[in-house]
Amino acid sequence: MSLKSFLSKIWAEAKRLFEGIPPELKTAIKIGVVVTENIKKFTDSPAADVLTAIIPGDIDDKIKDLLRAKLPAILAELKLADSCAGLTDPAAITSCAVKVLQGIGGDTQSAFLHNLAILVAEVAADGKLSWSDGVYLLEWYYKHEYKPAA
Fold first, then answer.
1. Of 40, 42, 35, 92, which Cα lies nearest the Cα of 58?
2. Is 77 exposed, middle or buried (0-12, 13-18, 19+ CB in 10 A)?
3. DSSP state letters, 68-133
4. For the purposes of burial, counting CB atoms within 10 Å of the CB of 91, is it exposed (0-12), middle (13-18) or buried (19 or more)?
5. Where on the tree of life does the source sit, at the highest rank (predicted)?
6. Closest CA to 67 of 100, 84, 91
7. What is the signed CA dihedral for 34, 126, 137, 17, rounded to 10 degrees?
């Protein structure tokens, strides 16, 4: 079996899994990808609230509040905000972590963003999405739903 054939079978299974999951988990996966992509695209603007800029406006207010509360802690746990250890304001922590991410390149940045997307989706799913399911489903969603639409 060729590698391409093997990967095609994996993606087909991920698609089947994605289509069978509850709508709230699909939404959580989408939020994980969109928030992470917004972080990747974010450019410093002194007038912008970093958390407002990276959290999509069309998601439920409860999820927005949860992400505003949890995202700085996630970024700190990923050690993206170590250089800003003295900061306590969530927006300042997030802004600092984004600046650190901007200084990281290539595969290392991609790895951080991938992990961040999964953690954000877990928060948005309110504990109903496991890490291992998130790994496959977010990867499939990003490559087959988000990326083609972008």
1. 35
2. exposed
3. HHHHHHHHHHTTSSGGGTT---HHHHHHHHHHHHHH--HHHHHHHHHHHHHHHHHHHTTT-S-HHH
4. middle
5. Bacteria
6. 91
7. -130
pTM (global) more than 0.85: no
Q: Which residue type does 45 have? A: S
Which tokens sit at 74?
Answer: 């996630």
Burial 67-76 (b: 16+ CB within 10 A, else e): bbebbbebbb
Question: Residue for token digits 């899994």?
Answer: 17
- 50-84: pLDDT as tens digits: 777 777 777 777 888 888 888 888 877 777 666 77
Q: How far apart are CA 94 and CA 53, in angstroms?
A: 11
Domain ranges of the chain: 22-145
CA–CA distance, 109 with 102 (Å, rounded to integer): 8
